[in-house]
Amino acid sequence: MPKMKTKSGAKKRFKITATGKVRGAYAFKSHNLRKRSNKMKRQARGSFVLSAADARMAKSMMPYA
């Protein structure tokens, strides 16, 4: 049986923690930051743990994660 392919978009956007949770980046941080509030930009730094439903979707795109 051949290896399953990982979706390359998912492998760039998500990381799996040691406990099996999925980490992702906050949205709306790439451009048009002038119109965003300082509070939003500050709170969107770093990454966060995806919800259970979103994590299930992300893990299905990364079969070996």
TrEMBL record:
Q: Which SUPFAM superfamilies match?
A: L35p-like (SSF143034)
Is this entry keyworded Ribonucleoprotein?
yes
Entry GO terms, CC: cytosolic large ribosomal subunit
Q: Which UniProt keywords apply?
A: Ribonucleoprotein, Ribosomal protein
> Tell me, what is an example of a GO biological process annotation in this record?
translation
Cited Pfam families: Ribosomal_L35p
A molecular function (GO) held by this record is: structural constituent of ribosome
Family from the record:
Belongs to the bacterial ribosomal protein bL35 family.
| HAMAP family in the cross-refs | Ribosomal_bL35 (MF_00514)
Stated name of the protein: Large ribosomal subunit protein bL35
